[in-house]
Design a protein that fits this description.
Shape of chain B: globular
Shape of chain A: globular
Low-confidence stretches of chain B: 1-24
CATH architecture of the largest domain in chain B: 3-Layer(aba) Sandwich
Number of helices of chain B: 13
Radius of gyration of chain A: 26 Å
Largest sheet of chain A: 2 strands, antiparallel
CATH class of the largest domain in chain A: Mainly Alpha
CATH topology of the largest domain in chain B: D-Maltodextrin-Binding Protein, domain 2
Distance between the termini of chain A: 45 Å
Mean pLDDT of chain B: 89
Number of strands of chain A: 4
Strand order of the largest sheet of chain A: 1-2
Order of helices and strands of chain B: HEHEHEHEHEHHEHEHEEHHHEH
Order of helices and strands of chain A: HHEEHEEHHHHHHHHHH
Oligomer: heterodimer
CATH superfamily of the largest domain in chain B: Periplasmic binding protein-like II
CATH topology of the largest domain in chain A: MetI-like fold
Largest sheet of chain B: 10 strands, mixed
Helix content of chain A: over 70%
Strand content of chain A: under 5%
Number of domains of chain A: 2
Number of strands of chain B: 10
Distance between the termini of chain B: 54 Å
CATH class of the largest domain in chain B: Alpha Beta
CATH architecture of the largest domain in chain A: Orthogonal Bundle
Structural class of chain B: alpha/beta
Strand content of chain B: 15-25%
Chain lengths: 312, 346
């Protein structure tokens, strides 16, 4: 380390001002790079390595190369492991279920979150801040506690059903708890602000004169929304969608507490490999790697298509 | 700069290692479940033997194993694993053995708990607490007979769709095997297929899987019946649920937590003193009153609270069979049971 400092500092002293600033900036960034390297890159690399190792019975790994974890994910050999090989649909279905749930939650969050953000951004003065404040208040409480509270609200003999029964809107309690609907409700409720806040930030910067100009040129309301407003606030929408989609994909509180944990989601499937009976660490690592690569592919594709559009 | 800081680090580690492994008499280091040891017992022990006890805690058998395997072995004297985990730890060479002559109170152990499957003849362990895992039924919802595992695996009309099962492979698959009357760790394909099919058909009648929520769903009424541990069911009743704990005729799961002597214990002599102390009826009575389960030694009854002594959860009816411990399967067999569990939850 010391040998690196010496030549750099001499050049900084002798050469121009900007390289000195650049140098200081590099050094000030060091802690961030260290944190990223230590806590982000290292664990992912470890996961990658572990996914190619041989599993040790009841937890742990044996340092021998093996493709068994990926084999288990994609190839079905029957209950006893000696039938002719087929494609293994079990884990693909679990992935599909998680992606579907997360996609649905993102859609609902957008449908409710966009008008909400729009409404808040178009308020004036103090009321804007009050609305923003109200959106964030529930999130001062821990997610686990909020999820359990939601469970209390929607259970068969909970307040929501009691209220609907008293109003005469229903004649029997709605069975919401332990269904996919309950999971959706949980995900929607947990991640709504992550949709509202980025969209709010985009809408607030939107120049409403553009809408007026479009209207002057005889654009209808829907045309203005589709051709002027949405493209302008798109970065906020994309950011919101990613912020809702990614955590929903790995969510396990809502599926476990509200959905009754009847079916594995990606998160609980991975957990089972580390804390469950068999303790199959390489398989857990392989599932994580597959998930990571899928998310990376989607995000890279999005980034590519964005730059292409900006260049054209 | 880098080298010197590395040196400091190494020195610090070496020092701290020396400090923990220095086997000063009058010290004892135990690794225990959370909320399972009353502080009073540790204080009494210190007053009597002048041995200072330090206790760290864990929250599952699997995390105990993982932590010892990741390098903690050699820093603790005693741990408190469940039955099957005693066998696994012994297989992995994590346990030390003692001679019966070292424990003057050894004969206090109830006869049925000496020659146990997970530690034949008690070479490394002594009983700590034991209990059972079966199921409880809300008597407001269902008033029929509940002495069969069919309540869970082929439920009567009133309970369908209102059943919670533990989110734990060992206990669920063992209960299902008892229901079918097939052995655990079976390698018979017909039996295993039957087990797989039974679980899939039963799942259609289940509302949820949950272990730490097992009590709460019964109290709140989300579930009308549910697999549960005996002490936990007693607590559900205390909290107002009209539930009855069942001892089904096909059998039920028994479990026992044990005090084990760890390999490379830094304070082995203190550890032996503590194990012997755990076998004194009055001491174990205090622990039992705290945990609300059952002791595995004789002469504890006079020290128990009236309620605990007579609780239906802790006293199986005379007609009930004895509990079955979850067996430890070999790797090939376990693989099939893992697949069955994944099939159930996929």
């Amino acid at each position: 380390m010391a040998t690196v400092i010496a030549p750099n500092s001499t050049t900084a002293e002798s050469s121009n001002h900007s390289s000195l600033v650049g140098n200081i900036r590099d050094w000030l960034l060091m802690p961030s790079w260290l944190v990223i390297g230590l806590f982000l890159v290292m664990p992912v690399l470890m996961m990658l390595v572990y996914s190619f190792l041989t599993k040790e019975f009841r937890g742990g790994v044996i340092w021998e190369f093996s493709l068994a974890a990926y084999d288990q994910f994609f190839i079905d050999r029957g209950l006893f492991g000696d039938e002719p090989i087929k494609i293994e649909w079990t884990y693909i279905n679990i992935f599909w279920r998680s992606f579907w749930q997360a996609g649905l939650a993102t859609t609902f969050c957008f449908l409710i979150g966009f008008p909400t953000a729009w409404y808040i951004a178009t308020r004036t003065g103090n009321s804007k801040h009050i609305w923003l404040f109200l959106i964030t208040i529930p999130y001062w409480v821990n997610l686990l506690i909020r999820t359990v509270s939601l469970k209390f609200l929607i259970r068969d003999n909970g307040p929501v059903n009691d209220w609907l029964l008293t109003l005469g809107a229903i004649s029997e309690p709605l069975s919401i708890i332990n269904t996919n609907l309950a999971v959706q409700l949980g995900l929607f409720y947990s991640y709504l602000p992550f949709m509202v806040l980025p969209i709010y930030a985009s809408v607030e910067r939107y120049n409403f004169a553009l809408s007026e100009a479009a209207a002057d040129l005889y654009a209808g309301r829907w045309t203005i929304l589709a051709k002027i407003v949405l493209p302008a606030v798109k970065p906020g929408i994309i950011a919101g969608c990613i912020l809702v989609f990614v955590p929903s994909l790995g969510a396990f509180l809502a599926p476990d507490l509200l959905g009754g944990a009847k079916n594995f989601m990606i998160g609980s499937l991975i957990e089972e490999q580390f804390k469950g009976n068999a303790g199959n660490w390489p398989f857990g690592a392989a599932i994580s790697m597959i998930l990571l690569s899928m998310v990376l592919v989607v995000l890279t594709y999005y980034a590519r298509s964005q730059t292409r559009r900006e260049n054209s | 700069m880098k080298i010197s800081s590395t040196k400091t680090l190494v020195a610090a580690i070496a020092l701290s290692l020396a400090a923990t492994s220095a086997s000063a008499s009058g010290k004892l280091s135990i690794y225990h479940w959370f909320e399972y040891m009353p502080q009073q017992v540790l204080d009494d022990f210190k007053a009597k033997f002048d041995i200072e006890v330090t206790m760290d805690t864990y929250d599952s058998n699997e995390s105990l194993l993982a932590s010892l395997k990741a390098g903690k072995i050699g820093s603790y004297d005693l741990a408190f694993p469940g039955d099957y985990m005693v066998a696994i730890m012994a297989n992995q060479g994590l346990l030390d053995t003692y001679q019966r002559s070292e424990l003057s109170n050894f004969d206090n152990i109830q006869k049925q708990w000496i020659d146990v499957e997970f530690d034949k003849g008690r070479k490394s362990s002594i009983p700590y607490q034991w209990g059972t895992t079966s199921f409880s039924v809300n008597r407001d919802v269902y008033s029929g007979s509940i002495d069969s595992t069919a309540i869970i695996f082929d439920p009567p009309k009133e309970l369908r769709g209102k059943i919670n099962v533990l989110d734990s492979q060992g206990e669920v698959l063992t209960m299902a095997s008892l229901h079918l009357g097939i052995p655990q760790c079976s390698t018979d394909r017909k039996q295993l297929k039957k087990l797989n099919d039974l679980l899939l058909s039963a799942k259609a009648q289940w509302a949820s899987f949950g272990s730490d929520t097992a009590k709460e769903v019964l109290v709140s009424g989300d579930a009308a019946a549910g697999m549960i541990y005996n002490g936990y069911s007693a607590k559900a009743k205390e909290e107002g649920a009209n539930v009855e704990y069942a001892y089904p005729k096909e059998g039920y799961v028994a479990w026992m937590d044990n005090v084990v002597l760890l390999r490379d214990a830094p304070n082995r002599a203190s550890a032996i003193t503590f194990m012997n102390y755990m076998l004194e009826p009055e001491v174990m009575g205090k622990i039992t009153n705290f945990s609300q389960y059952s002791a595995g030694i004789q002469g504890v009854a006079p020290f128990l609270t009236e309620k605990l002594r007579n609780s239906p959860e802790n006293n199986p009816p005379a007609s009930a069979p004895v509990g079955t411990f979850v067996a430890v399967c070999d790797e090939q067999t376990q693989l099939v049971y893992d697949r069955i569990w994944t099939n159930l939850k996929k």
